[in-house]
Amino acid sequence: MAELLYERIAATIEQQIEQGLYHPGDRLPGLRRLRRQFGVSLATVVAACELLEQREILEARPRSGFYVREGARPLPSPGEGVSDVDGPSLVSGQERVLGLVQAHNDPSVISFGAAAPPVELVPAVALDRSFARVRRRQRARIPTYDFPPGNLELRTQIARRMVQAGCNVSPDETVLTVGCQEALTLSLRAVADPGDVIAIESPTYYGILQAIESQGMRALEIPTDPVEGVLPGAVERALARWPIRCCVFMPSFGNPLGHVASEARKEELVALLRDHGVPLIEDDIYGELPFDGVRRWAAKAYDQYGDVLYCSSFSKTLGAGLRVGWVAPGRYRERVAYLKYATSQATPTMMTLAVADYLEQGGYDRFLRSARRRYERQVQRLSAAVRQCFPEGTRVTRPRGGFVVWVELPQGYDSLELAKRAIAGGISVAPGPIFSPTGRYRRCLRLSAARPWDDEVHGAIQRLGEMAHGLRMTP
Fold it and tell me: Could you give the 3-state DSSP secondary structure of residue 4?
């Protein structure tokens, strides 16, 4: 698959800026002039400039045009070190994650490592009311098993919400799970066997790697752009070269990069995988948290044959401790439902009934609007502090949703050593190697911006920056 035309134009303009043709504060030629210069439509030029605006390279000024942003810095490199010659591998190095998540619950540690919404940013009062109503009205159901596919009330509410993501899924087509992690693991078991090759974004969420490792499967890293996600051309080349059994991607607000694939790219990707007979497991756990409030369509929206197994949960919005997730597994529904029963028999009845009641009350969208604004501010503040406090040449992603930020340190810095020193100083971070099956991204780290910004958080970032300055490795 060829690179989209507007992406090529955006790359050309970005190269011109890097070469000094335009400097910070300069106004780009008008859109019509750019259209003539590149010989394309006006809509294509606008799309290219908007892409550079998303990357914070350009800024749009009303009635004036597009300008080179002051102090614009390049984004982290796509798929650092990943090439077409790299083959599938077993997953290693995930034992570090347990210490990371344990530190999240230590009140003496300022946690930037685990990505979970804090108590201050969940609708605790409204959820308490829902739990109380369930205890009063459905007391007899609480002690009973909630066998797969799970209670109909919640599956109905989920199906209604999935319409906003472009997915026409009935309640009968969903299976409730214990969080998104179980949804991912069940989906892998439904479509692949031990030893099979699973294509993943690189870097990718470490929970996906753990699911692959737990099933004895092999991971194949696909280079992933920090703005638009997995590179379609790389996927096509990998399909031609390796016996890929399935793909596990996060097209919308991926973790850890925060990327968002365009609707055209999602549709193209689904069609490509369909042509090769390869199912897609889609992790859309951050899909409800776009900063601009526009719910992106899921890749599942373009699935006509049941080849996409859509996984999500309420862990990033209503609270990680609820452990309420689901999967819409398409034509693998019966297999996933059986595997769910064989693995954990049922989902916690009290939790699923309470979440269903909360959604039925109608306040979820209002809560999400507030949460999105808060997370956007917190991501902006954390990113600005990193740029200010970390070594010169540090690169930071610019996510458009969710609440994680990917940081790429300059050459010669070691995020594993930084994480070690940080935890000794009461700060946890997620070092880059845990986001790769083979320990890549040694100079990268992921920071969670979920915690509300205050002087303590700002001070912790300053201390991290000081530690990073003292970490330069010997060449």
Answer: coil
In the chain, the largest separation of any two C-alpha atoms, in whole Å, equals: 72
SS3 of 308, please? strand
Q: Are 281 and 182 in contact (CB under 8 A)?
A: no
Q: Residue 7: what are its φ and ψ, rounded to 5°?
A: -70, -40
Looking at residue 433, the DSSP 8-state letter turns out to be G
Q: Residue 262, Cβ neighbours under 10 Å: how many?
A: 18
For 193, 258, 329, the CA distances from 189, given in Å and listed in that order, are: 7, 27, 12
What is the spatial distance between Cα 14 and Cα 136, in angstroms, rounded to a whole number? 60
Long-range contacts of 51-59 (CB under 8 A, 24+ apart): 51/6, 51/7, 51/10, 51/227, 51/228, 52/10, 52/13, 52/14, 54/227, 54/398, 54/400, 55/14, 55/227, 55/398, 56/398, 57/14, 57/17, 58/13, 58/28
Ordered strands of the 395-396 beta sheet: 395-396, 404-408, 444-448, 430-431
C-alpha–C-alpha distance, residues 119 and 451, integer Å: 9
| Angle made by CA atoms 458, 125, 152, in degrees to the nearest 5 | 115
What is the distance between the alpha carbons of residues 255 and 237, in angstroms, rounded to a whole number? 23
d(CA 34, CA 36): 5
Angle between helices 5-18 and 42-54 (to 10 degrees): 60
Residue with tokens 């984004």: 75
**What gap in Å lies between CA 401 and CA 375, rounded to an integer?**
8
Give one word for 56, left, alpha or beta, with left for phi > 0 and alpha for psi -120 to 50: left
Is the pLDDT assigned to residue 72 strictly greater than 70? no
**pLDDT tens readout for residues 44-60:** 999 999 888 877 789 88
User: How does pLDDT run across 137-196, given as a tens digit for each residue?
Assistant: 999 999 999 999 999 999 999 999 999 999 999 999 999 999 999 999 999 999 999 999
Phi-psi category of residue 195: left, alpha or beta, with phi > 0 → left and psi -120 to 50 → alpha = left
Write down the residue that tokens 């070469």 correspond to.
19
DSSP three-state, residue 421: helix
Please give the distance of CA 243 from its chain centroid, rounded to a whole number: 26
The answer to pTM > 0.90 is no
For the chain, the distance separating the N- and C-terminal CA atoms, rounded to the nearest angstrom, is: 39
What whole-number distance in Å separates Cα of residue 394 and Cα of residue 75? Answer: 9
Q: Per the omega criterion (within 30 degrees of 0), is the bond before 203 cis? A: yes
pLDDT of residue 2: 38
> What domains are defined for the chain?
5-68 (1.10.10.10), 96-120+366-469 (3.90.1150.10), 125-362 (3.40.640.10)
CB contact at 8 A, 296 and 287: yes
